[in-house]
Design brief:
76% of the residues lie in helices and 0% in strands. By secondary structure, it is mainly α. Helix 1 runs antiparallel to helix 2 and helix 2 packs antiparallel against helix 3.
Length: 88
């Protein structure tokens, strides 16, 4: 889970205003933060199957949002993957 402070910081960074939590870029940023946290958790707790399933769901959701962003605005897609360091 992303803390409230970190989530507010991500919303202000990637959103148009402080209440713009539904924007695609904001959702991708929050999911990326969750994925990073879950990945660190699973390195320690390898047998936590519930968290592994949650991680896979979040990765799939982010993948769908990135595909949508690719279709709608490719320049924003390139900018967000560069800023978040998702792809190599």
């Amino acid at each position: 889970m992303v803390s409230k402070d970190r989530k507010a910081e991500l919303v202000s960074t990637f959103g148009q205003n402080a209440k713009d939590t539904g924007a695609t870029k904001v959702q991708i940023a929050i999911l990326t933060e969750d994925i990073n946290n879950l990945t660190a958790h699973l390195k320690i707790h390898r047998k936590d199957i519930v968290s592994r399933r949650s991680l896979l769901q979040k990765v799939a959701q982010r993948k769908h949002l990135l595909a949508y962003l690719t279709k709608t605005d490719f320049n924003q897609y390139k900018a967000i993957i560069e800023k978040l360091g998702i792809r190599k």
